Known about the structure:
By secondary structure, the chain is mainly beta. The protein is 6% helix and 19% strand. The chain has a domain at 48-120: Beta Barrel (Thrombin, subunit H), CATH 2.40.10. The strands form two sheets. Strands 3, 4, 5 and 6 form a four-stranded antiparallel β-sheet that branches. Strands 1-2 form a two-stranded antiparallel ribbon. The chain is globular. Keywords: Hydrolase, Protease, Serine protease. It comes from Zootermopsis nevadensis (Dampwood termite).
Amino acid sequence: MVAHPQFNPGAYAYDIMLLKLNMRLTFNEVVRPICLPRWVLGNSASIQLPEQEATALGWGILTYHSPQRSCYLQEVKLSIIPRSQCLMKSRYTPDQLPSTLFCAGVPQGGKDSCQVSAVL
């Protein structure tokens, strides 16, 4: 496994990892490459994707008050939230939310990468 060189477990930035395999993969309906989008940078040099849908995947904690992590890959569909709206409605300051990150969620709350709507 190859972690991003700037990954910090105590922060949200650069939370991505590559897997280096010892053998070739055969692509099929369940094994396929992903497409990483090219970011569209606005005047503020921040990611601009408002009102688009995103999918969050992971094996994160299951509830906010429990350290228990999921044994199964979790999936949730979220809407991209404009940076200005995210800063108004969250506890983060502009310094804590770098321009390389974006916010996603649902207006009614209750769905995020830890509390999800589907198990894969």
